[in-house]
Amino acid sequence: MILVISGTNRSGGNSLKVGRLMAGYLEGHPDKPSTQLIDLATLPPSLLGSDVYSEKPPEFAPLADAVLASEGIMVIVPEYNGSFPGILKYFIDLLPFPESFDRRPVSYVGLSAGQWGALRAVEQLQLVFGYRNAYVHPPRTFLPGVHNLLDENGCLKDPSVAERLEKQAHGFVDFCKHFGNLTSGSQSS
């Protein structure tokens, strides 16, 4: 199973729309991997207490289990103030160490309202995953001016962008097969 993480808790934002698109492209690979999408906007409020570092609430277990069960993780990374959202770092910090990302394939899609497509945000996030010994998929896709690329239904307006995202997804499936233990499957969540 490949996990897709929408890297913000902004409800209904472009990250979730792109996450849904990427899940579809991943599932469209000839090996038909299963996917699961985590929307950080649905994190349980119980995670916001200061004691969460010492004792995780039971509502967090399915999220941690999904990360631990994944055979690869694709992170949709929006740029907030020249970096990635704090909620994404917080989510990462709550996950079990070191096994959550150790030798697990990870891929990135950056998006921003500005012209750089979250280049800085993705590079900063790669440092975090590198520290956690993840296998970083070298190709990354950046979507500058993301609000201009999607229609009101979350569909891409430009076929060349769709081709780039599909190439990223399919390349990541192959990367997961090579560096992980990706198995074929047709179930998605």
Characteristics:
189 residues; alpha/beta; six-stranded parallel β-sheet; 6 strands
Topology:
Layout: E1 2-6, H1 14-27, E2 35-39, H2 61-69, E3 72-78, H3 86-94, E4 105-111, H4 119-131, E5 135-136, E6 141-143, H5 146-149, H6 159-179
Parallel strand pairs: 1-2, 1-3, 3-4, 4-5, 4-6
Helix pairs in contact: 1-6
How would you explain this protein's 3D organization?
- The chain is globular and about 45 Å long.
- The chain has helices spanning 14-27, 61-69, 86-94, 119-131, 146-149, 159-179; strands spanning 2-6, 35-39, 72-78, 105-111, 135-136, 141-143.
- Helix 1 packs across helix 6 (159-179).
- With 189 residues, the protein is α/β, with parallel strands linked by helices.
- Strands 1, 2, 3, 4, 5 and 6 form a 6-stranded parallel sheet that branches.
- The chain contains 6 helices and 6 strands, in the order βαβαβαβαββαα.
- It starts with a strand and ends in a 10-residue tail after the last helix.
Brief sketch in words of this structure:
The longest helix is centred in the C-terminal third of the chain and has 21 residues, at about 160-180. The protein is globular and about 45 Å long. The protein has helices at about 15-25, 60-70, 85-95, 120-130, 145-150, 160-180; strands at about 1-5, 35-40, 70-80, 105-110, 135, 140-145.
The SSE order reads EHEHEHEHEEHH
What's the total count of β strands?
A: 6
The SS-based structural class is alpha/beta
The gyration radius over C-alpha positions equals 16 Å
Task: State the helix count.
Answer: 6
